[in-house]
């Protein structure tokens, strides 16, 4: 496995932005905004539809409306927490209150933005969260690769490696 080449980014390597909002106009405007930056955007009109299609292995960020018919944004967040999903969540709402925002942030949301939101600020936040998600993904891949390589060592090679790690020569 070679180090990640940031110079050859495609929409797939940049990451996916999941947009979950019951308002067609909000979904469409976010799709336009984010696709203009070459992100892969997936739109969902409900929390239930998103949960049914969510890929936990994807490098992604979730832009999530708080108040929707059926499953609310906070319920989607709860569901993802129960699945131990490492998905950054940016809440957007037209009807937020302080206690709702505090609750969402305490449960791990990265931000809570009121509609109408400043497009440049949201885009910058999405970019930062996707960069962090890419870095976490690469770290997991490095760790898996290292574990696979260590598993291939013979018992003697493992013994030598342990001694080197502990600052001893392999003959000591």
From TrEMBL:
This is DNA-binding response regulator, LuxR family. Residues 16-130 form the Response regulatory domain. Transmembrane segments: none annotated. SUPFAM superfamilies: CheY-like. Signal peptide: none annotated. PANTHER family: CHEMOTAXIS TWO-COMPONENT RESPONSE REGULATOR, STRESS RESPONSE REGULATOR PROTEIN 1. It holds the Pfam family Response_reg. One of its GO terms (molecular function) is DNA binding.
